[in-house]
Amino acid sequence: MDLTDIPDDAYAGDEQAPDLDELEPPGALFTEGPVRERLLDVITGIRDPTKVAEIAELADCDTETARDYLEWFDEMGLVRRHGGRPVQYERNDTYFEWRRVERIRQEYTDEEIVDALSDTFEQIEAYREQFDTDSPNSVSLVEASQEIPTEEAWEALSEWETLERRARVLDAARRDHPSLGDKPDLVDV
Amino acid sequence: MSNDPGTPTGRGPVDAALVDRIAAHLVRSEHFSDVHSRPPYAPSAVVADYDLGYFPSGVERAYLRIRWFETDDFSIHYSEQYGTGGSWECRWDRHPNDHNTREHFHPPPDAATPGVDEEYSSDWRSVLTTVLTRLDDRIAAFWED
């Protein structure tokens, strides 16, 4: 069955077709924004130091424009600049984590943060019991997938790592300062 | 074990920054009436509900649930739910598994496993464009005679 096969369940009677022309073409959603948005999209997806020319190409803008914006992003902390020739940039994960912490502090009360943190720890604890170890880093996907299907092992270990990350961010928000250096395990909640 | 020997053990947490970025784009789209980035009931995902105005009235809900990881693995789940109680779903995936190559598609109507091996772009924007374009074809198909 392909994507354009429609089951009868979808219809509940005679109906007028909507005006589908008003829908923007999907590609436009990601390519037709202002240059700064396109550069932010590209830099958010870049996980290794990348040359300005390559970033410019991905963002579909000229190299000089990309260079100007990247210098500005660097001042704001969004990217890390690697000097040398040619200059390279990569996303600054610390900035994005700090922004998550700030948002949590703005949107949630202290009590909600502590509740979310305990809930996260409970879920982490379940994974620790399931894999009989303290950290997802000490379980290899190969090992785990001998016991359960690879897809399930991947889901579980990725989710566990996601929870560890979330605990760290929530803990930083709880401490009311954006330092992310401490291990959440040390918190008594 | 994965059939893709290059990165059989790759895994990592959800990329919250990229998930939020995806949501920021979907919010601006006419396609969706409701977009939530990492809501409490799905804290790893963007959940985007299609505007039901583009669907026949038998469709009670149509939504995308997108997860994106720091390994650039992803899972994009599309689901339609009908007033009859039936449903229809499919999934675009890139992750280690036992049934397909790392990049694959679980076909409708029930996202069957094994799916079909596929090749996706390395650029997250292109992957989402591909998925949204294919779903636009579906929306058009509802209204064809």
Features:
heterodimer, A: 189 residues, mainly alpha, 3-stranded antiparallel sheet, extended, disordered C terminus, B: 145 residues, alpha+beta, 21% helix, globular, disordered N terminus
Structural overview:
In chain A, helix 2 crosses helix 3 and helix 5 crosses helix 8. Helix content of chain A is 57%, strand content 5%. The radius of gyration of chain A is 23 Å and the shape is extended. In chain A, a hairpin with a 5-residue loop joins strand 2 (79-82) and strand 3. With 189 residues, chain A is mainly α. By secondary structure, chain B is α+β, with helices and mostly antiparallel strands. Chain B contains 2 helices and 7 strands, in the order H-E-E-E-E-E-E-E-H. In chain B, a hairpin with a 4-residue loop joins strand 4 and strand 5. The radius of gyration of chain B is 15 Å and the shape is globular. The N and C termini of chain B lie far apart (45 Å). Residues 1-7 of chain B have low confidence and may be disordered. The interface between A and B is large, with 51 and 64 residues.
